[in-house]
Specification:
single chain; about 15% strand; 9 helices; alpha/beta; about 30% helix; ten-stranded mixed β-sheet
Length: about 325
């Protein structure tokens, strides 16, 4: 019998023929060739700052310490973060600089470190979190993801991520630029649940801040309330009340959607949103986060201007930050 151990999916060599996401494009990112995510192996970050617009257990009163990464393997047509997801805006940083940014956010009073669309850079992300924790990072680490992730990558980050803030966007793959999205998102959610259970399950502090857990986000799309209800069916089947649910009505058509016309050129109606919320209640979800009418998603999008990105790297002794 062989005693060979399985290869580490997050080894630096993963960039040699990249299969870090479900696209499995095998791009030679370590040689400077961009993958389907639009990125090489060079870690790029667009913003690092306190962010007040997440769900209450994530943002609290002080704000979430959000680090926005450049690139995205999914490529939703209605993306509000297109400057960084598709257009590549961002600043090249090292894993040691990323670790120092986490400590800077902690010093600013962040409730957590919130890594936004990070997993196409998961080898450096794992390294940076390890370095930051060794240097005194005591905050929960949140992985804010589209849900289009490989279960083996999720599992490999089980000791790194405390809170999974994951989308489940569609039940019908025809709505996505990735036809396999529904099955991939379901498998990823199952892996997140396994990771959470192994860590001891959901934990929320006395202040209401989530220290361990899963929040599944779903953005209701105009004209697709039936698909939204099917998404909630799938989430309930997989996780039940082991996951919190966030149902959002903040869809705002970007310029490309407005030009294309059709349902995605308009906002979600109150009736559509109510149908989905009622279905969530009927299924039995006990923790549902929802939005009041009149929200506009552009109001939740920060300026991608490299705020907080430039600065010192983590050294042998952490660089002191004023509180």
């Amino acid at each position: 019998m062989s005693d060979a151990r399985p290869a580490d999916p997050l080894a630096a060599s993963a960039y040699d023929a990249c299969e870090l996401c479900p696209r499995r494009c095998r791009a030679r990112r370590s040689q400077g060739r961009a993958g389907r995510c639009g990125m090489t192996s060079e870690l790029r970050v667009a913003r690092s700052a306190l962010h007040p617009w997440e769900e209450p257990p994530i943002s609290g009163e002080s704000g979430s310490g959000a680090i926005f990464f450049s690139g995205c393997p999914l490529g939703c047509v209605f993306c509000q973060n297109h400057e960084i997801s598709g257009e590549g805006f961002g600043v090249a940083v090292s894993a040691r600089r990323l670790a120092q940014m986490m400590l800077e956010l902690q010093a600013q009073g962040a409730l957590n470190v919130n890594l936004v669309t990070p997993l196409h850079f998961s080898p450096q992300v794992r390294e940076a979190v390890g370095l930051a924790r060794e240097a005194g990072l005591g905050l929960p680490v949140v992985c804010n993801t589209s849900g289009y992730e490989l279960p083996e990558v999720v599992a490999a980050l089980g000791g790194v991520v405390d809170v999974w803030l994951t989308d489940f966007k569609y039940a019908d793959g025809a709505l996505s630029g990735a036809p396999d999205y529904p099955e991939v998102a379901a498998s990823a959610l199952e892996a997140m649940l396994e990771s959470l259970r192994a860590a001891g399950g959901r934990e929320v502090g006395s202040d209401g801040a989530m220290r361990r857990g899963i929040i599944v986000r779903h953005l209701v799309l105009p004209g697709h309330a039936d698909d939204s209800c099917a998404v909630l069916d799938r989430v309930w089947e997989i996780a039940g009340n082991e996951a919190d649910l966030s149902v959002m009505n903040q869809y705002t058509p970007n310029e490309a959607c407005r030009r294309a016309g059709g349902d995605l050129a308009r906002a979600v109606t109150d009736e559509e949103y109510e149908i989905v919320l009622c279905h969530a209640d009927d299924l039995g979800f006990e923790r549902i986060w929802w939005q009041e009418g009149g929200t506009v998603s552009e109001s939740f999008v920060p300026a991608f201007d490299a705020t907080g990105v430039d600065g010192p790297e983590l050294g042998p002794t952490p660089v002191a930050q004023a509180v």
